[in-house]
């Protein structure tokens, strides 16, 4: 038995043999074990011979059965070939019989068709005779339940009558036509009644009969008319239309053989009657009296109509449903879209002007004319070259004449105009129309509002020698900067998508660039003049507060102050202006303006210090003042400005240093690169300069 292991088998055999091992103290008997092995081997040999004989017998039996099976298979193959031959013969016989039957059928049909036509012709002649005699006796004409058979007959008679000469058969042709018309009316009436009862199968049956009549289109018209009864009861005619078309779409295929034509006719009727009337009522009411409401209604109605068209695209309306629906929309709105952009521009212009005027009225401000022409252009060029105020300064009382609310209103109006333009403009006119709207925005926001505020702000900047001048131009800069960010955002978000792939893109970008450059020139000019005014204010403070005795006190040993009053006031003023500049600007502009102010501030202090003579204690006070100015300069956070004041502080050391150390101080790190004349000019400010000892040491 499997699995067979020889070693285990021998072990088991030895274990079972008495004396085959030391089991239970029994002595090992090799002879007995050998004898047992020999006997067992003989038994195994006998068993092997017996099994071998059995295997040979089974092999012989298997070979015999295989031969018998092969013989049987050969016999079956022969039988199959015979059967296949019989099948082919039967198939050929069937084909032959079928050919004969088809031929016989053709012959019978050839005989039967003329016979049927003859029978039908006979019947039609019989019915024609009744019309000829003027009395309809046949049951098919008198029995109302056989209206379909009567319709078939009268339709054929009507076709025949049309071929007959009028002079001989005018009366009978008239009677047939009259009956044709009566039956047509009856069928349409039946269709109408079935539709009201909701009997779809009856409607389908009658529609199939009417299909060959001239009044079939009238049947469709009746169906379309009755479909709409009670369908438009809500305020939303567009939603009602969508629901109606969806319901009819499910039903029309069960009734008519050409459902797509019927559905298309229904949609055409809805557009040309319901929607066109609704649109006209909504738009004509405001067309001449209220441009804002007219544009809002036009945009809303056109959007809802196109949305309805998108829903109807799901239905089968024939081959080119996109063109079909587009023509329907165009037929409704063409008279309104032709002059849309003129209405839009006119409204935008009047609305923007009103927003601006309302703002200036709220400020009790009469907008002054900036003016154009030769003299104004000359003034502008002179002002740009000299940076001098031309004409009297205007007191704006701190008003910037810039309003974020006004800007938001203008941008909102323009945004809505861009949206309407995108929806209502023809694709070929879209970039051109968008550019016109953008031009309106530039005119009223940039020119009439921002540019006017800049001009007014420039005119309001006092001269540099004015005392206690209020400087509001930085507020104008701050607001103009904020406003222009909003303008730029609308340009990118709403205008760019409309013109990005058209030649108008470069024109819009150039127009934007020009207006930016124009504003930057005026902003730069105003900032420059404002900085001049700041320096002028510092000059007034220094002139009023700085005394000659500050740096040459009468009692050198009794000086109690750390720095002069003029220094305190100037530093306080400068810190306020630095904070104001930081609040008014952003980005690199802050550093640029602060650097310019810092340089001018340094030049002012440098020149101011050159006006005085300094005793030893006065020089110490000057160093203290400059140290305070340097601390103030740190607020600028500009390396150049701080370096200038560091150098100035080092120069002030020349006012107090001992004569023997002058050369050493002048050759120090901060002063070594300065011009000798500058160093000399500071040494000359010392009250002891004329002493021979000091002059000798500095020479």
TrEMBL record:
Residues 41-79 form a coiled coil. GO terms for cellular component: exocyst. Residues 30-138 form the Exocyst complex component Sec10 N-terminal domain. The keyword Zinc does not apply. GO terms for biological process: exocytosis; Golgi to plasma membrane transport. Residues 149-698 form the Exocyst complex component Sec10-like alpha-helical bundle domain. Pfam families: Sec10_HB (PF07393), Sec10_N (PF20667). Keywords: Coiled coil, Exocytosis, Transport. Belongs to the SEC10 family. This is Exocyst complex component 5. It comes from Piprites chloris. The gene is Exoc5.
């Amino acid at each position: 038995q499997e699995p067979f292991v020889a070693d285990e088998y021998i072990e088991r055999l030895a274990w079972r043999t008495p004396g085959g091992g030391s089991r239970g103290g029994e002595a090992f008997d090799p002879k007995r074990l050998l004898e047992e092995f020999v006997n067992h081997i003989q038994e195994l040999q006998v068993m092997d011979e017996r099994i071998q004989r059995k295997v040979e017998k089974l092999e012989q039996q298997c070979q015999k059965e295989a031969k018998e099976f092969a013989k049987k298979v050969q016999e079956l193959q022969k039988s199959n070939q015979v059967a296949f031959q019989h099948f082919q013969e039967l198939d050929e016989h069937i084909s032959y019989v079928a050919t004969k039957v088809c031929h016989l059928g053709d012959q019978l049909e050839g005989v039967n068709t003329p016979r049927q036509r003859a029978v039908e012709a006979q019947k039609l002649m019989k019915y024609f005779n009744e019309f000829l005699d003027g009395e309809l006796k046949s049951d098919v004409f008198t029995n109302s339940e056989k209206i379909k058979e009567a319709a078939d007959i009268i339709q054929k008679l009507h076709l025949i009558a049309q071929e007959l000469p009028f002079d001989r058969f005018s009366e009978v042709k008239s009677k047939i036509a009259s009956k044709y018309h009566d039956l047509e009316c009856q069928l349409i009436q039946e269709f109408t009644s079935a539709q009201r009862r909701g009997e779809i199968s009856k409607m389908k049956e009658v529609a199939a009969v009417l299909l060959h009549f001239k009044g079939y289109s009238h049947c469709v018209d009746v169906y379309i008319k009755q479909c709409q009864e009670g369908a438009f009861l809500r305020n939303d005619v567009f939603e009602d239309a969508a629901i109606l078309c969806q319901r009819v779409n499910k039903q029309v295929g069960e009734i008519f053989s050409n459902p797509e034509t019927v559905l298309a006719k229904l949609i055409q009727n809805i557009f040309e009657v319901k929607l066109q009337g609704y649109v006209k009522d909504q738009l004509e009411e405001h067309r001449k009296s209220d441009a804002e409401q007219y544009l809002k209604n036009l945009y809303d109605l056109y959007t809802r109509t196109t949305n309805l068209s998108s829903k109807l695209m799901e239905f089968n309306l024939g081959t080119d449903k996109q063109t079909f629906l587009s023509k329907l929309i165009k037929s409704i709105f063409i008279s309104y879209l032709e002059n849309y952009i003129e209405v839009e521009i006119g409204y935008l212009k009047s609305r923007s002007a009103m927003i601006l005027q309302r703002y200036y009225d709220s400020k009790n401000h009469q907008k002054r004319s900036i003016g154009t022409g030769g003299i104004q252009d000359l003034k502008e060029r002179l002002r740009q070259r000299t940076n001098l105020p031309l004409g009297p300064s205007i007191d704006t009382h701190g008003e910037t004449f810039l309003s974020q609310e006004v800007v938001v209103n203008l941008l909102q109006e323009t945004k809505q105009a861009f949206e309407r333009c995108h929806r209502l403009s023809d694709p070929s006119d879209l970039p051109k129309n968008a550019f016109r709207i953008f031009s309106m925005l530039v005119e009223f926001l940039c020119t009439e509002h921002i540019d006017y505020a800049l001009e007014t702000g420039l005119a309001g900047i006092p001269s540099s020698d004015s005392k206690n001048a209020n400087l509001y131009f930085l507020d104008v800069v701050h607001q103009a900067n904020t406003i222009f960010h909003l303008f730029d955002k609308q340009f990118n978000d709403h205008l760019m998508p409309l013109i990005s792939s058209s030649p108008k893109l470069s024109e819009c970008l150039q127009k934007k660039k020009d207006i930016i450059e124009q504003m930057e020139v005026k902003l730069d000019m105003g900032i420059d003049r404002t900085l001049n005014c700041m320096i002028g204010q510092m000059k007034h403070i220094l002139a009023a507060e700085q005394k000659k005795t500050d740096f040459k006190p009468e009692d050198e040993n009794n000086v109690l102050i750390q720095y002069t009053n003029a220094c305190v006031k100037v530093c306080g003023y400068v810190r306020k202006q630095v904070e104001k500049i930081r609040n008014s600007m952003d980005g690199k502009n802050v550093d640029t303006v602060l650097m310019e102010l810092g340089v001018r501030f340094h030049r002012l202090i440098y020149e101011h210090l050159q006006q005085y003579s300094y005793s030893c204690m006065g020089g110490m006070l000057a160093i203290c003042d400059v140290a305070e100015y340097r601390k103030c300069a740190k607020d600028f956070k500009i390396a150049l400005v701080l370096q200038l004041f560091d150098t100035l502080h080092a120069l002030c050391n020349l006012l107090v240093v001992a004569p023997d150390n002058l050369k050493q101080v002048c050759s120090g790190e901060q002063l070594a690169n300065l011009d000798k004349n500058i160093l000399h000019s500071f040494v000359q400010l010392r009250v002891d300069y004329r002493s021979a000892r000091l002059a000798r040491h500095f020479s």
